[in-house]
Write a structure and sequence with these properties.
Structural class of chain A: mainly alpha
Number of strands of chain B: 4
Number of helices of chain A: 5
Largest sheet of chain A: none
Structural class of chain B: mainly alpha
Largest interface: A-B, 33 and 27 residues
Distance between the termini of chain B: 24 Å
Oligomer: heterodimer
Strand content of chain A: under 5%
Helix content of chain B: over 70%
Order of helices and strands of chain B: HHEEHHHHHHHHHEEHHHHHHHHH
Strand content of chain B: under 5%
Distance between the termini of chain A: 65 Å
Radius of gyration of chain B: 21 Å
Chain lengths: ~130, ~475
């Protein structure tokens, strides 16, 4: 087998694991939205996309084809690692989603307070009014 | 009973926070005493906890009886116990102080005191948590309550709280990404397990990337330059009763988390693609210490000056913990405890000056000294400690960092500590030249400084000096806990 260049290796890795390609795209896209849009709500959407992409990453690397629930029944001596899903990343995912929801709640409360006070959601406009 | 101490320390503020809306809905005036009471109980518990840990060794607390690899574990070692005591003590100081300067709309507000209690509970969680994901959850609880507390100031504070939220949540997301990289590579989240398995995996790209993301996430939380953008605005505009609490805790515990990871995983001399990791971290610390000091020197707003001073001191601590020998490491950790007290005192003084004299900037300070002897006394003590003169704790921390740097023969670090000391001296001289400036018409009548303020300023000043006298024993405790293998 001939040696591949790093670029070819990257392309091959992306074709073999499209999930991770999607993660990278979502992550960078979210950062772009957070950095570029002056609108507070759009910034929040960017943040939410970044957070979701990380959750997606957690799910993507822990997915297992044809795996079942990891529960030990009375007849089984031990759990077969190849056919049962790893429960830990899923537990982490659920917790991370809860944290995201809490963040979203606090941030929307702040945004609405800013809107009531300064009458705008545009960062440049608000900063001008803050002085 | 004593094995339940860590969880008791967490449950006291947590249960009080949950019960607060029920107990105080009709009796708003109970909020403040109830909160102060709960935090006082925490201080007492953490003193008992420290004594137990020192005499009987570390406590491993397994939730629901499920041990470390499967269940969720907390580790209560001397480092955690000392940090818990420091955090609860500064929280109590800020609460006593808060009675004086709390804005009238928050004075009898149930949500405000609930948030403060949840924030303290989360700090305890971060200090004790023994796995990386638990740390993430508690960091987020602390951060979310922190955003809300900053935003409670209303007006300008809302905008800065939102900026803090965007950056802080992004940092937490980076941290989570790093943790998931580490989990994917190693298959465990427990810090003790990680410490055992990671060192041989340091050549793996996934592990290195994971550690980089964890560091980036935490450095947003600890406001490491150039990721400090959220801090000065948030602290300068937060309600005055909140600023000392936030300034003295959140950046410090994030740094403690990083110290735990760094100390147990990155051995001295580890190189990643020919870059020695610890030296790199130490150089970052040196840069931060110097730049933070320089930025503080050019500020005219008092609170911003103190905020940048605090950012510079994070750099100093990072130098200490990254030198790779135990003298500097214990020096750095000891300095961290001092820094918590110093930041609390600085923001108490800044808040009180604003409250009594309406002084925002250095020029407004003229003639304050003759009217507020208590503030002047506390400011002089904290200045001595910040610059690092004996007998205050600041001196012994810096002294150990410099000794460690000489031991490791890293003269750049010594130089950075010296430059940062000179810069600190510089901005305090600027501050004092305005503070002790006598106006033409001397108003001799003293402003009534309320008793709680005197108590908190007095306790903080005494604490800084006592830390200096007790530095030997505290350093020995930290030293023993780090060298005995417990992380």
């Amino acid at each position: 087998m001939t040696k591949m260049s790093p670029m070819d290796e990257l392309i091959q890795a992306l074709i073999q694991r499209p999930n991770f390609g999607v993660f990278v795209i979502l992550f960078l896209w979210g950062i772009y939205i957070m950095a570029v849009h002056p609108n507070y709500v759009k910034k929040l959407i960017g943040l939410y996309i970044v957070q979701t992409s990380v959750v997606f990453f957690l799910v993507a690397f822990s997915a297992k084809d044809g795996a079942t629930v990891p529960v030990i029944s009375a007849e089984m001596a031990s759990l077969e690692p190849l056919v049962s899903a790893n429960p830990l990343p899923h537990a982490l995912t659920v917790t991370a989603i809860v944290v995201q929801v809490a963040t979203l709640g606090v941030s929307l409360a702040l945004v609405s307070a800013i809107y009531r006070k300064y009458g705008s959601l545009d960062e440049d406009e608000v900063l001008k009014r803050v002085g | 009973m004593s094995s339940q101490l860590p969880i008791l320390l967490f449950l006291v503020p947590f249960v009080t926070a949950v019960a607060m809306p029920i107990l105080c809905a009709k009796r708003r005036s109970w909020c403040q005493p109830l909160t102060t009471g709960a935090v006082s109980v925490m201080v007492v518990l953490s003193i008992i906890n420290l004594r137990v840990v020192l005499s009987e060794g570390p406590i491993e607390y397994a939730f629901g009886g499920w041990g470390a690899p499967l269940g969720i574990a907390w580790l209560d070692d001397p480092l955690a116990a000392v940090m818990a005591l420091a955090m609860t003590a500064v929280a109590l100081l800020s609460l006593i102080y808060g009675r004086v300067v709390v804005p009238s709309n928050l004075d009898r507000s149930v949500p405000y005191y609930t948030l403060i209690l949840l924030f303290t509970a989360a700090l305890i969680g971060i200090v004790f948590a023994a796995d990386l994901f638990n740390v993430f959850v508690f960091l987020e609880v602390a951060a979310l309550t922190g955003y809300a507390l900053v935003g409670a100031g209303g007006g300008k504070a809302l905008v800065y709280a939102f900026r803090y939220l965007l950056l802080g949540s992004f940092g937490a997301t980076l941290y989570l990404l790093g943790v998931s990289y580490l989990y994917a590579a190693v298959g465990t989240l427990n810090m003790v397990d990680l410490a055992a398995r990671l060192p041989e995996l340091m050549t793996s790209t996934a592990v290195v990337t994971g550690l980089v993301f964890v560091f980036l996430g935490l450095s947003i939380k600890m406001a490491l330059i150039p990721l400090h953008g959220w801090l000065p605005g948030a602290y300068a505009n937060a309600p005055q009763s909140v600023a000392p609490l936030l300034a003295s805790t959140i950046t410090k515990v994030s740094l403690v988390v990083w110290v735990r990871i760094e100390f147990s995983i990155i051995a001295p001399g580890v190189e990643v693609s020919h870059i020695p990791v610890l030296v790199l971290l130490e150089d970052i610390g040196a840069l931060v210490a110097v730049i933070g000091g320089a930025l503080a020197l050019v500020q005219t707003n008092i609170k911003r000056m103190f905020a940048y001073g605090g950012i510079g001191h994070i750099g100093l601590i990072l130098i200490g913990v990254s030198l790779g020998n135990s003298t500097a490491l214990t020096g750095g950790l000891f300095y961290l405890i001092n820094d918590a007290v110093m930041q609390a005192t600085l923001f108490m003084v800044a808040g009180a000056v604003l409250h009594y004299h309406g002084a925002h900037s250095l020029d407004d300070l003229k003639g304050v000294s003759s009217r507020s002897p208590w503030l002047t006394g506390a400011l002089v003590v904290v200045a001595v400690s910040m610059v690092g003169l004996p007998p205050t704790g600041g001196f012994f921390g810096k002294w150990n960092i410099v000794l460690g740097a000489l031991e490791a023969q890293h003269y750049l670090a010594v130089f950075a500590v010296l430059v940062s000391t000179l810069l600190t001296l510089g901005y305090f001289l600027r501050l004092f030249s305005c503070w002790f400036h006598q106006p033409a018409t001397i108003e001799s009548e003293q402003l009534e400084v309320a008793v709680p303020l005197r108590v908190s300023l007095g306790l903080a000043s005494v604490a800084m000096i006592v830390l200096g006298f007790m530095s030997d024993s505290i350093v020995r405790v930290l030293f023993d806990s780090l060298t005995s293998g417990g992380s």
